[in-house]
């Protein structure tokens, strides 16, 4: 386990170190003057977006020589308990990993290309920073709309199947809705009237 003093050192240096939890390592690249406290991170089990101040933190060493350690975050106690039980997130039905592997959520889309890690050092420019922030908001909006559309299209198949099953069930059990003798008197009356008309026509011909 890593000493907490080292964590506080990384957290409160003037460089504002950026925490890259998508790969599970501390990345020592300096960030802007904006505080890191409101960075959105992914928990180890549920993979839902949360703020890093709202999570339980767990650090584990990789090596004893270099300062390399993996950081796990848990959004709630349920997530932490499942992690300690060594459960596979892809086999637990309420996790994002399961929903994506089962095809219940959008996984392949161009909007996910913006979240890829790029190890390219860039010089800080205020205009570039502002444009990037605005583009991130726009990309998130587009991604939410596409995810909602994907889920609605997926649910349409289920609604169509339910409709077909309901129609077949009504056809099979039509006697429960309409009695077998319902309308029989009306049919008999129509037959009698038709027979009388035929008799009258035959009498006129003779």
From TrEMBL:
Associated with nucleolar and cytoplasmic pre-60S particles. At the end of biogenesis it dissociates from cytoplasmic pre-60S particles and is likely to be exchanged for its ribosomal homolog, RPL24. It comes from the Eukaryota. This is Probable ribosome biogenesis protein RLP24. GO terms for biological process: ribosomal large subunit biogenesis. Pfam families: Ribosomal_L24e. InterPro entries: L24e/L24_sf, Ribosomal_eL24, Ribosomal_eL24-rel_N. Belongs to the eukaryotic ribosomal protein eL24 family. GO terms for molecular function: structural constituent of ribosome. It comes from Acipenser oxyrinchus oxyrinchus. GO terms for cellular component: nucleolus. Involved in the biogenesis of the 60S ribosomal subunit. Ensures the docking of GTPBP4/NOG1 to pre-60S particles. Residues 70-108 form the Large ribosomal subunit protein eL24-related N-terminal domain.
């Amino acid at each position: 386990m890593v000493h907490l003093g080292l964590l506080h050192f990384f957290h409160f240096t003037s460089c504002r170190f950026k925490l890259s939890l998508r790969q599970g390592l501390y990345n020592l690249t300096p960030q802007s003057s904006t505080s890191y406290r409101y960075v959105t991170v992914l928990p180890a089990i549920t993979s839902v977006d949360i703020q890093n101040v709202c999570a339980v933190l767990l650090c584990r060493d990789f090596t004893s020589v270099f300062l390399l350690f993996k950081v796990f975050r848990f959004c709630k106690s349920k997530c932490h308990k499942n992690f300690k039980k060594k459960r596979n997130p892809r086999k637990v039905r309420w996790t994002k990993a399961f929903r994506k592997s089962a095809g219940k959520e959008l996984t392949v889309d161009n909007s996910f290309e913006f979240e890829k890690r790029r190890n390219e050092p860039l010089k800080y420019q205020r205009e570039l920073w502002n444009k990037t922030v605005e583009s991130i908001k726009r990309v998130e909006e587009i991604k939410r709309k596409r995810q909602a559309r994907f889920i609605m299209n997926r649910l349409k198949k289920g609604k169509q199947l339910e409709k077909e099953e309901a129609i077949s069930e009504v056809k099979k059990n039509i006697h429960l809705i309409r009695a077998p003798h319902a309308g029989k008197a009306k049919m008999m009356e129509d037959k009698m009237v038709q027979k009388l008309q035929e008799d009258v026509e035959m009498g006129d011909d003779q």
